[in-house]
Amino acid sequence: MTQIPLIERILASMTLAEKAAALCVARIVANPDGRLWEGNDPASPFGFVPATELIVGRGISSVLLMNAPSAEAIATWHNALQDLASQTRLGVPVQVASDPRHGSRFNVQTALVSSGLSRFPEPIGFAATRDTALTERAARAMARELRACGISVAVHPMADLATEARWARISGTFGEDPELAGKISAAWVRGLQGEVLGAQSVAATVKHFPGGGPQRDGLDSHFAEGAHTVYPGGRFNEHVRPFVDALDAGATRVMPGYAAPLGTPHESVGFAFARSIITDLLRGELGFEGLVVTDFNVVTGMRLPALGIELPVRAWGVEDLTPVQRVGRLFAAGVDQLGGEDDPTLIVDAVSAGEVTEERLDVSVRRVLADRLALGLLTEQPAAAATGTPVRLAPVSLAPVRVDPTRAAFPATTAEHRAVALATRRASVVALTGSAPGLPGMRVYAEGIPADTLAAYAEVVTDPAEADLAIVRVDAPFEEREGMLAGAFHDGALEFPPAQLEHLLTLCRAVPTVIDVYLERPTALPEVAEAAAALLGTFGVEDEIVLDAIFGYQPVNGALPFDLPRSTTAVAASRTDVPFDTVDPVFLFGHGLVWPGGNSRPALNHSHENPRPTSE
């Protein structure tokens, strides 16, 4: 008696419709208390398919959680999803994926913040630490916390190079230098997955292959005006380099970017549609054998009925194809799963129309099932495992997957996780000018820091004229965009608006002023750098971290992960795909003064646990 491998028995048991459903990754939301969203609760304005219809009615078993309930609520919701999965014919457990949710900044399309999880700086802050060992420890902590909630797929890291300073996605990257970005990407992958993908791992999805950084004019490829990457310096291969490091570290998933390249030998279509990118380069030249998942909504558009919005499909270069034709083109290129698609009949119709064969779908379904088996999500019930012959397929009975909601938030409370999160946030701070000027008993005027927080460090005054020191925390400037989704992408000019700049300079003239800039993008701040008593760059840390640095209670030794340009004009004149190509930057990549710290800390009434998240 020979036991036929579980994956082959599941595959042989699947109908075409079930195979199609396995190749869709649908958006989904949960109610804040962990209940399933069934279309009649106000968990989301996006109008997603209700959970029961999605899982039971359509048979979809891969989902991306789009909102940010607490860790306990996510675990409760996850178990309810698995109850739905048990009602399907094959009982294949639902696999839950997530965009980053351990940072400090919420973005409706790209990043989330859930309570009950550790808080780290934004990914760009990891590059500022330059510490691969710390990055790997941090990513391992993230993986433990995500698995405790029931999340087994991370839609990160971003291995894109930040060579176009106006681009809105730089905070999610590891900076401008190919070598550093590759090393941090690899450490991130090792931390999430471990040495071997297993039941304690989170599968890493490296994006946006082969590099989404050189966006023309810095406009993002979520939108038609940002449909193209450009390579005036001929550096296409340099943008691939960090992905090679991530793949060498064992990344099991890759997400191609939306953009269509200009000025390369490749066809000018969205990367996921290009066989030369997916099959020839990724699978052939680089030897990748894992899952390729498209970025979301490259087949159909995104519908937001509650807001009266319907976004166009992000099928740059193949807009003239029908959805069914796009499906065929994607599988011909070499992808496996369709991100953001919740209608499996499109794939069934593509088979009926001759755009793709069922045998080709089988190749991708095997990859999907193998990934779940490795992650411990496909476990056969003992009774079914005892059957099987070489000529007759055994019945498949899969064990349900459960997590304990009462333990979902526990990992983040451990001393190990608290320590690595705090160490990472502290190590990400960059001192650009000056030295730690704060002394106990100083009278301090502050903007961007609550008075009750500052009161633990100094005497708070509300008039700069009465202050010994001023401290200002500001966000990097950007150009306002109309619309909820476009407005979430901070791009455009890199200088502070004239009124804000004049306010900062006036304050600097009135009193010694420390300015901390949240560097979600490389900011052009020559005047501020000259005028401030001290200038810090941070990447998503709480007020206490900044105050500890200013008052010398903790050392500062982070380094810039990109150049800080002199002006937006200098960026526009540079070659979009070439690192470090702007003329006369104010600060160079790697710049960072050492503030030694070591001052004695008075008794403070605060801790560094659970810093406040911020909405963008």
From TrEMBL:
It is an enzyme of class 3 (hydrolase). One of its GO terms (biological process) is glucan catabolic process. It catalyses: Hydrolysis of terminal, non-reducing beta-D-glucosyl residues with release of beta-D-glucose. Residues 53-369 form the Glycoside hydrolase family 3 N-terminal domain. SUPFAM superfamilies: (Trans)glycosidases, Beta-D-glucan exohydrolase, C-terminal domain. Coiled coil: none annotated. It comes from the Bacteria. One of its GO terms (molecular function) is beta-glucosidase activity. Keywords: Glycosidase, Hydrolase, Signal. This is beta-glucosidase. The lineage of its organism: Bacteria, Bacillati, Actinomycetota, Actinomycetes, Micrococcales.
